[in-house]
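Assess this today:

___
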Amino acid sequence: MGVPTLGCTCRVCTSADPRDRRSRPSAAVSWNDHCVLIDTGPDFREQALREGIRSVDAVFYTHSHADHVLGLDDLRPLSFLKKPNRIPLYADKPTARALESIFHYHFAPDGTYPHRARVQIHHISGSESVELFGASFQRIPLMHGDMEIAGFRFGRAAYLTDMNSIPDTSLELLRDLDVVVIDALRPQPHPSHSTISESIAWIEKLRPRSAWFTHMSHEVLHAETDPQLPAPIHLAYDGLRVPFEI
């Protein structure tokens, strides 16, 4: 729901620490003048303006929930710059169906909307990989409650948001990583998100060189929680940039 959360006056939502202002999670992977996104949440426009993103080469979607897809419409001006090409969107079939339904005016085959986004959906499932500009993006199956969603590995980094379980077959795809970004919603149990203690346990299994917790709710105060995390784990924050080998 983002932090501050609408209507809330808790100590995190009223915190003056800029690290406690959390927009909905998206990631940009940049290398050699290329930029690939993971998700386009409802805050994507402001995130792109803040980070100076002026071109997008592709988007990978983790799943169809609103906080991960509702910024798709803001790809329109960036897609116009790609003419005559289209920005490829990679998603599993359930996510693709949701995108086509929510944004029917962009995807309807008989659509007449003249300013529709110049995008094209490509289905990806299982642990398939997509090669883009010399880099490989591999889909990593995760569980978000009883729903299978996608994490992604690219080079020596992985992005694993909105999960509470990693299947054993996926764990084998996440070895030898320098960077892991992983869901850590709050200290209390949740039916579809990993808690802080559960995410610490996942990182102990994966053993990356560095780890960043994301998707924190307003139960997590940055200045209080970050110092308590064991090395090499830290809380992520809006605008964080992490170097890695792709």
In short: The longest strand covers residues 135-144. Residues 73 and 91 are 16 Å apart (CA to CA). Helices lie at 44-51, 66-69, 76-80, 93-102, 104-107, 168-171, 196-206, 222-225.
